[in-house]
Design brief:
The complex is a heterodimer of chains A (206) and B (279). Helix content of chain A is 81%, strand content 0%. The longest helix of chain A is centred in the N-terminal third of the chain and has 39 residues. Chain A has 206 residues and is mainly alpha-helical. Chain A is built from eight helices and no strands. Chain A has three domains: 64 residues, no CATH class; 60 residues, no CATH class; 64 residues. Chain A starts with a helix and ends in a 12-residue tail after the last helix. Chain B has 279 residues and is α/β, with parallel strands linked by helices. In chain B, strand 2, helix 5 and strand 3 form a beta-alpha-beta unit. In chain B, helix 6 packs parallel to helix 9. Classes of the chains: A mainly alpha (206), B alpha/beta (279). Chains A and B meet through helix 2, helix 4, helix 5, helix 7 and helix 8 of A and helix 2, helix 5, helix 6, helix 10 and helix 12 of B.
């Protein structure tokens, strides 16, 4: 029963949502909307659960003084400061804006921008024409890189047209293949979950 | 020499990049910006909005990627607000979205009446499930707005119940749920037109949706924002940051060329040395 009941719930709910998507049956659509609404509630609950789990994991780390436990203190302090600011002052308050936007934006943008430095360094070290495939990739990349800059037409008039061709023909063909492949794969996996053939979501021993 | 150049200290590359990125901010350069077709199409679609039309704007980005996405949001919102009588609803499926929508309203919404001209619904968790729920019943997914007011009490929301009541969906995105989810759950089912601002890394991935006509037009990151600002005749953060991005792209292209030239010279040198040793 522990395994069968979730499988029945999964089958029935997914069937209602799929039928509501393809067929215009008012009662099924209403039920589907209710189920989707529950899905949003479950997601919201999962956010709360994740926060509780985060606190639990980092408190254990601090108690055991595991490697990097000082960062855990910082994490929990930041987390509770934001929660405190949001709950007591409201999310429109200056305090909330300050604690969330000011440090978070600056730190987030800094961390993200580091990728640019790695890309610059990696492109110098790894992007080398060692074989014919790498050479084609390399030439395409340089054309697109230069072709997307505002001065491209000053270098060569044909740059934008050539870039458009690369993006709209070889790139498009590859991307469409990937999109269709992923969609077929997702449909197959969904069907397997729906009929209970894929049971990894029920636990490791299922 | 070629071998030395190949094994150059990465800190030197970092230093050059810092200089290259900083210089255009210190000495702004005027770049000849040509407006691309997807940007023109996005502009045309928004320009056709009429009095009473309802636009939903979804901000799907975090502080990490806001430097690229927020200028797109500002450019698109500036244009939407220039259309008389167009109503705007902000809804986001990323937890940091409401922060950015508030920044936009603080900047642009001073002369607008909340609840009638615009509404900020805040954030709904659940990814594509929430998008699906939004498409079919907005009031169920967003029972209250970002201020805690029940959405049924807001005059604008009394007329807008589902995606069928939306004239245009505008996404400013650097992540999920974004254009693919909007197409699957909103455009595919309700034929709601979509205009999007995509982070540069998503453009090659999402372009098939534009070519298929599922997305009416799109902005390509900071470059797209700059192009849109040109069309609006209002220079902003897009044009301001484009010099830096262009300089960095050029530097990466030059680095790739240098790396390959030195690699070929080094390879040739090694082959010649090997031949000499064998002789």
């Amino acid at each position: 029963m522990k395994k069968e009941l979730p499988l029945v719930v999964v089958f029935l709910t997914s069937l209602i949502v799929v039928v509501a998507y393809f067929l215009n049956i008012p009662s099924v659509i209403t039920t589907s909307n209710t189920l989707v609404g529950w899905g949003v509630l479950v997601s919201a609950f999962a956010l709360g659960l994740a926060a509780v789990n985060l606190v639990r994991v980092h408190l254990t780390k601090i108690r055991k003084q595991a490697k990097g436990w000082q960062f855990s203190i910082l994490l929990l302090a930041a987390m509770f400061t934001v929660i405190f600011a949001g709950l007591t002052q409201g999310t429109s308050s200056q305090l909330y804006k300050y604690v969330f936007v000011t440090p978070r934006s600056a730190l987030g943008a800094s961390i993200y921008s580091l990728i640019g430095f790695y890309v610059a360094s990696a492109s110098y070290r790894a992007f080398v024409a060692k074989n014919i495939d790498a050479t084609i990739l390399l030439i395409s990349a340089i054309i697109v890189l230069i072709g997307k800059t505002p001065y491209a037409t000053a270098v060569w008039n044909g740059f934008p047209g050539f870039v458009d061709w690369i993006m709209n023909v070889p790139n498009m063909a590859a991307q469409r293949g990937i999109i269709i492949g992923v969609a077929v794969g997702a449909a197959a996996l969904s069907l397997r979950i729906m009929v209970g053939l894929e049971r990894s979501s029920l636990g490791a021993d299922s | 020499m070629a071998h030395k150049l190949q094994s150059i200290d990465r800190r030197i590359i970092y230093l050059i990049l810092v200089v290259v990125l900083a210089l255009p901010f210190i000495f702004p350069i005027r770049l000849p910006i040509e407006v691309s077709k997807p940007t023109q199409d996005a502009y045309k679609t928004i320009d056709q909005l009429k009095d009473g039309d309802v636009v939903v704007m979804c901000l799907v980005y975090t502080p990490n990627t806001s430097a690229e996405a927020h200028p797109m949001s500002e450019a698109l919102l500036t244009h939407i607000l220039s259309k008389k009588g167009v109503k705007i609803i902000m809804a986001t499926f990323t937890e940091t979205g409401p922060i950015f929508s508030r920044q936009l309203w603080d900047k642009f919404g001073k002369n607008l009446k909340y609840g009638e001209d615009f509404v900020d619904l805040g954030f709904a968790p659940g990814g594509e499930t929430a998008v699906s729920g939004f498409a079919n019943d907005i009031h169920k997914v967003f029972p209250v707005d970002v201020r805690g007011t029940p959405v049924g009490q807001l005059p604008l929301m009394q007329k807008v119940k589902s995606a069928k009541d939306i004239t245009l969906l505008v996404g400013s995105e650097t992540g999920n749920p974004g254009t693919p989810e909007f197409i699957r759950q909103i455009q595919g089912q309700h034929k709601t037109p979509i205009v999007a601002g995509w982070s540069g890394q998503y453009v090659p991935v999402y372009t098939p949706y534009y070519n298929a006509g599922q997305v009416k037009g799109f902005l390509n990151g900071l470059r797209g924002a700059a192009e849109y600002e040109i069309l609006l005749g209002k220079p902003g953060e897009g044009i301001g940051g484009l010099g830096s991005v262009t300089a960095a792209m050029t530097m990466v292209a030059i680095l790739i060329v240098i790396a390959n030239v030195t690699y070929q010279i080094d390879k040739k040198g090694k082959a010649q040395a090997k031949e000499a040793n064998q002789a």
